[in-house]
Task: structure prediction
Amino acid sequence: MCQVEERARYEAQQEFPDADILDPMWDPEHLDAGLEALINYPLDRFHEQFRDFYEALADPAAFIEKPSINLEGVVVLKVFRFQGSEILDVAPVFVREVLNEREANDYGTFPDYPEDEQIVCAIPALEFEEGFTYEEDFHELVVEHVMAQIRDLYLHMGEEPPEEYLVQGVGKLDIHGDGIGET
Result:
């Protein structure tokens, strides 16, 4: 039933685009526009602006002011602001230590971008495979993460994602569909 409700919310937002029905991060068209901006972002600027995301994914403890953490509860967030197909700003990395369903410790400041101009990348701490390098592989990982979020939005609405979004990797961390993130 939840998938039907989510699909109805999506359709209502499409019918009434000025209404505040659906968070933009749960709209596949919004994520697709952000994906285009990410793909168009110059690679040298990406390497400058996203290094802290890579470092926090590899070693989140370095970004947390606490002697011990449960890495299974850590989510690393990187937010960027875009308009059209251009990234306007990239915020510093933000780390969240999830303690339980209602409590979390946040390290860093979540940016104050307009919701309809931001993309939030949220990935749990990772162990990168041997041979994975920042310069060669990280841009593709972030692009595939946004694509996986789009994939998961379709699953969230109970639909098969378009073929181009059938990628491997971490997408949305809490959705309805195929048992992913269901409570």
